[in-house]
Amino acid sequence: MPAPGRLHTKPPAPPLRSHVSDAPARGVSLIELVVTLGVAASLVLLGLPAYRNWIAEQQLQNHARLLAQSMHFARSEAIKRGHRVNLCKSSDGTQCADVGGWGQGFLLHEDESLKGEVDGSDRILRFEPAPLGISVSANKPLAEYVSFTSYGTARMLSGALQMGTFTLCKTGLRSVEVVLVASGRVRIARTKAICP
Predict the structure, then answer these.
(1) Residue from 88, 65, 68 nearest 147 by CA
(2) Which residue intervals of the chain are DSSP H helices?
(3) Is residue 5 part of a domain?
(4) Are 86 and 74 in contact (CB under 8 A)?
(5) How far apart are CA 120 and CA 157, in angstroms?
(6) Considering the domain boundaries, does residue 28 fall inside one?
(7) 1: pLDDT strictly greater than 60
């Protein structure tokens, strides 16, 4: 309670401060900005070739996986359907090619007639177009086609065992091999050979 005769008053308000602070300025000078941008640009220029190389390696690996998965699919479809399913080189996606290599693309098709070609009621199951900048070659047993029987084994149309290696290349990178083994299984292997 206030003393008798004295009125209760409020304490005085703090003095008004100006907008100018005594703290140091917190900005960036033009020189600091230019130096930072120069360092960032240098780092980008140094990292760009490595990034391009990494992208090219991933494209090569992806196509190797696509080829291996296509052979896995052909094998499983041959078992499921109870007759041969073939993988052959093709540029148009409707017929197997008689000339050229696997780099032109490939298709999977049923082969009930055992001719190794798309004919009559044979259904095309999948087509993969040519990969950009990637060459695909195969050794002699796989030069024309890969054929899976209803037992899941890879056999030539003559009945002979079919196994071999696809080699995938992109200039300046290490080649990748897709290997078809006697049981009909497929694996991917990296090599130390540099593609021309």
Answers:
(1) 88
(2) 30-81
(3) no
(4) yes
(5) 18
(6) no
(7) no
CATH number at 138 reads: 3.55.40.10
Distances (CA, A) of 70 to 38, 88, 174: 48, 11, 22
Read off the pLDDT of each residue in 30-46 and give the average, rounded to a whole number: 87
Q: Say whether pLDDT at 22 is over 90.
A: no
Provide the domain count of the chain: 1
| Separation between Cα atoms, residue 141 and residue 30, nearest integer Å | 67
> CA-CA distances (angstroms) from residue 143 to 27, 89, 191?
68, 9, 20
Containing structural domain, residue 74: 35-194
Q: End-to-end alpha-carbon separation of the chain, Å?
A: 99
Q: HSE (CB half, 13 Å, CA atoms) of 28?
A: 8
The predicted structure's pLDDT at residue 138: 94
User: Which residue pairs from 185-194 have beta carbons closer than 8 angstroms and sit at least 24 positions apart in sequence?
Assistant: 186/68, 186/71, 186/72, 187/68, 188/61, 188/64, 188/65, 188/68
Q: Are strands 135-138 and 105-110 parallel, antiparallel or unpaired?
A: unpaired
Distance separating alpha carbons of residues 12 and 178, to the nearest angstrom: 87
Q: Residue 106: which of 95, 115, 116 has the closest Cα?
A: 95
DSSP at 154: B
